[in-house]
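Work Package 3 (structural annotation) set out to generate three-dimensional models for the target panel prioritized at the project kickoff. During this period the team completed the workflow that converts sequence records into discrete structure tokens, so that structures can be stored uniformly alongside our sequence database. As a representative example, we reproduce one entry of 119 residues exactly as it appears in the project archive.
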Amino acid sequence: VQLAESGGALVQPGGSLRLSCRNSGDTLINYYMSWIRQAPGKDLEWVSSILNGGRKQHLADSVKGRFTISQDNAKNTVYLQMNSLKPEDTAMYYCASGYGGTWSDFDYWGQGTQVTVSS
């Protein structure tokens, strides 16, 4: 599994971004895929997961109604559509394979992509 994120940028509050995570090492259908973020000086925070080849999605309460996770199996890519962005969404966003209650449940991680929400 080799994960590579892209799409991070500086955006104004209320704006939108779409993050992408491409798995170049294996087919996505074989994995649960997740987005995790880390704000400066804070702990890792789980954001969203997509399971069962894209048939089931989970979102953290802090992003429900604003973020959407999806995947394109043909492109082996997972997306995180982020709308109505807030300054508190500022963080490094990581794509990871896995899903669970502890960080050890996430096997492979990308290098991260920076999202900054600021006016």
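The chain is about 0% helix and 50% strand.
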